[in-house]
Specification:
Layout: E1 13-21, E2 27-34, E3 40-44, E4 50-56, E5 62-64, H1 73-76, E6 84-86, E7 92-93, E8 97-100, E9 103-106, E10 115-116, E11 129-135, E12 138-147, E13 158-166, E14 171-180, E15 184-185, E16 189-191, E17 206-209, E18 213-215, E19 228-229, E20 241-242, H2 252-257, E21 261-265, E22 275-281, E23 287-293, E24 297-301, E25 311-312, E26 315-316, E27 324-328, E28 343-344, E29 350-360
Antiparallel strand pairs: 1-2, 2-3, 3-4, 4-5, 6-16, 7-10, 8-9, 11-12, 12-13, 13-14, 14-29, 15-28, 17-20, 17-22, 18-19, 18-21, 21-24, 22-23, 23-29, 24-27, 25-26
Length: 362
């Protein structure tokens, strides 16, 4: 199901236009990145949200492959984190608290007893400062946000910078940078929901994830003490499988997530090196998405809680109408010394990069 797109010149560049108003009356802006191959990425300064992402199918027809809305107003309400930048901490922190050197830090409880995606007013609900740029054949946006000490319970002042770069190779590069004046956990990611068919359910998309282990969860979706081997389970995506092929199996982990909503421990030769994390192929359109990242984990979410109540771009977003693949550190890392660390110390820099590469198969 292809979605019609407006005609834009096939050239690289950045344009800007109004995108509505926030509840406090401030205007939001929408920035459009294009390349010479026709790829289009639209980003708003509210939440750093990717609102549209148009890529060609095997016949060269452009289609919008992310879920979202046509103005900023729906993003100000319940929007399931569509397309947003997530921080200070992506995923869950158990009990909405953590302890460092005997000091206890209480965070916003916005997921039952737990803390999720930086809190109710995390980075997905703030206005970012945006600086467009063009560099050689690439077009991009540099987004900055200053998070004050105590915001959503986090200690220290933190300056976050996220850079979106669209290349001529149909790659969207997302680079993250942060510094802080006190020790604070940092785990940033991008929360786009993808549908490479531009409509319908995503159960026929074929997914592979470069991971021999994942982190099983308890009833609150907090990781259990031990990693789980994917071998012999519905979580084994080391070879491509349709997302829906095993999602209804009688499995306690699938039951707890109402489908897939789990962190995968990526197989990486170099812990902080850039490596392939996942590949998704849509047989209907021929579109392929590859995700490369420096992060140690990848959260796979199969759109289990979409129920049709969110509507945008002329369609209703029903059950499993989009999937998320979120490069990040592991859930609850501030409370898990056995996990890769997420504590950013004063004088240190948080740096990470992920690439979303689009292509087609015949």
């Amino acid at each position: 199901m292809e979605e019609a797109t407006e005609s834009l010149p096939r050239r690289g560049g950045v344009t800007q236009k109004a995108f509505g108003f926030l509840p406090d009356g401030r205007p939001a802006q929408l920035y459009t990145l294009t390349n010479e191959r026709g790829m289009i990425v639209r980003v708003t300064d509210f939440g750093g949200v990717i609102t549209e992402l148009h890529v060609p199918d095997r016949d060269g027809m452009l289609g919008d492959v992310v879920l979202g809305f046509g103005s900023v107003e729906p993003y100000c309400g319940e929007s399931a984190y569509f397309g947003a930048l997530i921080g200070r901490y992506a995923n869950r922190i158990a009990g909405a608290r953590y302890t460092v050197d005997g000091a206890v830090y209480d965070l916003d409880r916005n997921d039952g007893a737990n803390h999720l995606h930086g809190g109710a007013l995390g980075f997905h609900k703030v206005l970012w400062q945006v600086e467009p740029f063009e560099s050689g054949a690439a077009a991009g946006l540099r987004l900055r946000y200053f998070s004050p000490d105590g915001e959503q319970g986090y200690p220290g002042n933190l300056q976050a910078t996220v850079t979106y770069t669209l290349t001529q190779g149909n790659e969207l590069i997302v680079q993250y940078h942060a510094i802080a004046d006190r020790a604070t956990p940092v785990n940033l990611t991008q929360h786009s929901y993808f549908n490479l068919a531009c409509g319908g359910a995503i159960v026929d998309h074929e997914l592979s994830i470069q991971a021999a282990y994942y982190t099983p969860v308890d009833a609150g979706l907090i990781p259990l003490p031990e990693h789980g081997a994917v071998a012999g389970t519905p979580f084994d995506f080391r070879q491509p499988h349709a997302i829906g092929a095993r999602i209804a199996q009688d499995d306690v982990q699938l039951a707890r997530g109402r489908g897939y909503d789990h962190n995968f421990v990526l197989d990486k030769g170099t812990p902080k090196g850039l490596g392939l994390a996942a590949t998704v192929y849509d047989p209907l359109s021929g579109r392929v998405l590859e995700i490369l990242t420096q992060e140690p984990g990848l959260q796979f979410y199969s759109g289990n809680f979409l129920d049709g109540s969110l509507q945008g771009k002329g369609r209703s977003y029903g059950w499993r109408s989009g999937f998320c693949l979120e490069p990040q550190h592991f859930p609850d890392s501030p409370n898990r010394p056995d996990y890769p660390g997420t504590m950013l110390q004063p004088g240190a820099e948080y740096c990470s990069r992920s690439i979303y590469r689009f292509s087609v198969r015949p």
